[in-house]
Design goal:
Order of helices and strands: HEHEHHEHEHHEH
Structural class: alpha/beta
CATH superfamily: P-loop containing nucleotide triphosphate hydrolases
Number of helices: 8
Number of strands: 5
Helix content: 40-55%
Number of domains: 1
Shape: globular
Distance between the termini: 39 Å
Length: 198
């Protein structure tokens, strides 16, 4: 794609991130939940959102299904579309983080490459990867959306964990297994990560 020559960003004229964070009395950060479908990413993110709200901390969840029914509804599940899905999410996430908002992104994001791209767009210092490491067997038992059963029957192609690989993060900021930890314990571990992010 040719680079546009008629674009003149005005970032230097806008109010700064520091101005926004001072107004809100908080620091923006991206908590990027990664893990298999059914691992508990969205459930933990929603629990964290409620706890932050109680503490007066402004937070926004970006969730896979919500994003795919809105801004990314024109994307499919090819490798190229999956990559574009994560790129757009990271760009939107960066806008929230730069506004001083604690942002919780819950996406399978199965490859190191996709998560590295997201980290690069958002900024490494603002990107905290949380690996929801719940085992595949447990995710399949939960199968709240019936997706694993359909994937096992061959009705869904390239399904992460069944017919497409999931690359485990090598050094996440936090790893939680929701088959071992309760929801409250999982939420508290993520809260600790956020509240220590000064």
């Amino acid at each position: 794609m040719a680079e546009a020559t008629n674009i003149y960003p005005i970032y230097d004229k806008m109010m700064s991130r520091k101005d926004k964070e001072t107004l809100l009395g908080q620091r923006g950060v991206m908590i990027w939940f990664t893990g298999l479908s059914g691992s508990g990413k969205s459930t933990v993110a929603m629990g964290v959102e409620r706890e932050l709200h109680k503490r007066g901390i402004l937070c926004r969840i970006l969730d896979g299904d919500n994003i795919r029914s809105g801004i990314n509804k024109n994307l499919g599940f090819s490798d190229e579309d999956r990559r574009e899905n994560i790129r757009r999410i990271a760009e939107v996430g960066k806008l929230f983080v730069d506004t001083g908002i604690v942002t919780l992104a819950a996406f399978i994001s199965p490859t190191d490459e996709s998560r590295s791209m997201a980290s690069e767009i958002i900024g490494e210092e603002d990107f905290k990867e949380v690996y929801v490491s719940t085992p595949l067997e447990v995710c399949e038992q939960r199968d709240v959306k019936g997706l694993y059963a359909r994937a096992r029957k061959g009705e869904i192609k390239d399904f992460t964990g069944v017919s497409a690989p999931f690359e485990e993060p090598s050094s996440p900021a936090l790893s939680i297994d929701t088959s071992v930890l309760s929801l409250e314990e999982s939420v508290n571990k993520v809260l600790e990560l956020i509240l220590n992010n000064k």
